[in-house]
Predict the structure.
Amino acid sequence: MLRARRSFSAGSALRLLAASWLLATVPAARGEPPPVRRLPDALSCSAREELAFAETVSNEFFSQLQQSVAALVGGGFAAVWTDGEYGARRVRMQWLDPSGRPLLPPDGLVISGPPGTIDNPVVVAGSAAGEAYVAFVAGSHVVVQRFVSAQSQWPGTGIVAVDNINESAAEPNLVANPGGGVFACFHFWAVGPVLDIRCQRFDAAGARLWTSSGVSIGSPNAELRVLPRGVSDGAGGILLFWRNQRNFNLASPGPMLMEGQRFAADGSRPWGAAPKVVRTTNLASDNGYSYVFHQVVPDGSGGAVLAFNDWTGTSDLALDVLAQRVSGAGDLLWGSGAVVTGANGHQQHDQTIATGDGGAIVAVEDYDPLDSNRNRLLLFRLGPNGTHAWSSSGVLVSDLGSTALDYGAFGSFNGGVLRLAWAHQTAQFTFEMDVPLATFSAAGTRTGTTLMTTAPDGQFLRGLAFSPDTGGVLAVWDDRRKGSWSDMDVGGALFVESSPCRSGSFFTLTPCRLLDTRGPLSSSLLSGEARNLAVSGACGIPASAMAVALNVTAVSPEGDGYLTLFPAIHFRPLASMINTRPGLTRANNAILRLPLGGSITIFPFLAGGRSTHLVIDVNGYFE
C-alpha cells in the first residue's frame, strides 16, 4: 500500500472526534475521495473506550458474584453475562485480544446452549497465556468450561463439576490453579434446611481430579453455609471461606460464623474433618445475605486475608468491618481479628483487594447517621500484622457533600498503584449512576481520577480487571441507559494508561477493499445481525490508526432500511450511514473513528428481515 503523509491545519468541525464515532458522512459518487482533514492533536497519551458487550431486546445482566471479568495472562480480557428471563436464560461471552479487539460476534457468543434454568456465570484467568475458565449453573448442576483464545476446549458446553447433586447448586466460585487447571466450589441445598458446600478440581484437559462427587467441606451440622470464596494455597490446593448463617429454624441457633477449610492437591482436608471457625461473630443468625458481606484475597504467602461485616461489641450497635489473616497451616495470624473500622455509625464491607504483602486494602461504605440514603466510600490498608498502614480513619474516596451514594467498588493493586472503580450516584433518590476510576499510590495518596462513563440513567458496576501486560483497565457494568428494567444491557469501558501519542496527521492510501460480501468467503448482511470487521492491520492500516476514510456502498438491497457503522462493541448510535431502497445501489463517504483494537461493527436493518450486500473501500487513515 502506498502511504503518503499530508499535514493540514486543524479544522473546528473535526474537534467532534473526541466525542463522536462518526466524523463525516458526505454523500458522494463511488470512488470520490473524502475531504482531506487533520484531527486535533492528542491531549494525552491515555485512551478510554466505552463498550457495549450486548444491547439486544432481552435483559442482559452480569453476575453479582464478583467474577464477571478476567484479565488474561499475556494481555486481553474475557467477560461473561446472562441474557433472557429466569427459566429461559443463556450465558454469553466476549473476548478482547491484547489490543482491545473483540474476538467474538457483536452481543457476544452463547456458550451455554439453549435457553433454560441457567444463571450465575463466572470467569477467571487461567495460568497459561490467553486461557480462561468459565462456570455457570445449569439446572441443578455447575458446569465448567475451559477457553483458549476464545475457543472452548472441553466437550459441549462444559463438564459438570459434581454428579450427585439432586437439589439446586448455586453461586459458583472459581480459583485458578497456578500449576494448571481450576477449582470450582459452590453451595447447594442438601437434606432439609441445609446448605452444604462442595468443590471440584479440574486439570487443563477437563479431568475431574476429586472424584465425580467432588469433596465436601465436612460440615457436621444442619446449617446454612453460603458464598464460598477461595484462593490458591500455592501448592496445588485451595483455601476456602464462607459465611455460616446457622439454622435459623432452631430456637437457639447461635451467632453467625465465618468458617474456612483447606483442600490439599489430593482433596484431603489438612485442617481437619470439620471446618475451621475463623470468627464467631456478634451477629444473629439470618436467612438472607449480601454478595458483599465478605471477600477473600491471597496474602502472597500461601495464606489468605478475609474481610467481613461484624460488630465489635464496643461501639454503638451499628455494623462494623473486621478482617483476619489465615496461614496455609490454618493459623489465625491476627488474633481474634483486626478491626478495619469500628467507628460510630453504620459501616459496611464493600470490597477487599489483595496487596500481596500479607495485608489487604478494604473498601468500606460509611453511612450518614442522619440519612441512610447518603454515604461516603473509605479505603483502609492493613499491613502484614493487621495494623493500619494508612490512616485508621480511612482514605476518603468520596464525600457526603459530593454525592448521595457510592458503592460497588472493584479494584486492583499492582506495581504499587491501586486502581479503583465504583458506582457513583449523582443525584439522591434517582438511578443516575456514573462509574469513576481513581488511582492511589502505595501510601494512599490519590493520584488521578477519570470517568469511565457519564451515560444517562444507571450504570451499576459489576467488575474490574487490570492487565499488567498492556496497562489496560476494563470495568464492566449493568447498563440502564434505555431507562427500563425490562431491557437492561451490559456495558463497560476499557482504559489504557499508556497509549501511543497521536499527531492527528492524515495518510492517503491507494484505494483498497476492506469488505465485499459478494465474494466467495463472505455472505450478505441479514437484517438485525451485526457483524464485526477488523480494520487495523488490513490494507496497510496500522494499529496506531485513530480513524479511517471510507467509501461504503450498499449493493442490491432487498428492502427499505438502513446501515449503521460504528466502533466495534460500542453502543449503537442512532445515525445511519446509508438508507436503503429495494434494488437501488447507494454509496456514501465517511470518516469513521477506530476504537482500541481497530475493529468496526456493521449493523443492517431492512424491512421484513431482508438482506443486502455491502462493499467497503478505504483510501486513507488518521494517525
In short: The first strand starts at residue 4 and ends at 6. Residues 1-44 have pLDDT under 50 and may be disordered. The radius of gyration is 26 Å. Residues 461 and 545 are 30 Å apart (CA to CA).
